[in-house]
Amino acid sequence: MLQAAVEGLEVGAGDASAGVLGVSVLTSLAKPDLERVGIQRSPGQLVGKMAKVAAAARCEGLVCSPKELNVVAQAAPGLLRVTPGIRPTDVDDDQARTATPSDAIEKGASLLVIGRPITQAADPAAAAAAILADITRSRS
Question: Full-prediction pTM beyond 0.90?
Fold first, then answer.
């Protein structure tokens, strides 16, 4: 399926710059959730396998939990690592495998996906500014 998506993009995009991202294990799932649907691997083992499949299909990157960034880096170092489940330290929600923005960057995230901590904040602009300040502090 991933290879077909890559090939379809190559045909349809022409000279446009675009890429396909594979999606690994949702950040809301932990090992017991996988076991309930018959998967006997840990999230890390499953993400490692999916990273190899995505790389073989010539995907540009993989969406993965920040907890598995090192797994993707080892299994398929050329892939972009796109990480949802990014949460400030004071946010607790339904996501099982999360990290702070600065932790995800330190672990090798290429792109951060930060949704609900901003969109569901009482003051979204202030929440975004606080997250940016945290990222900026961690990079200096």
Answer: no
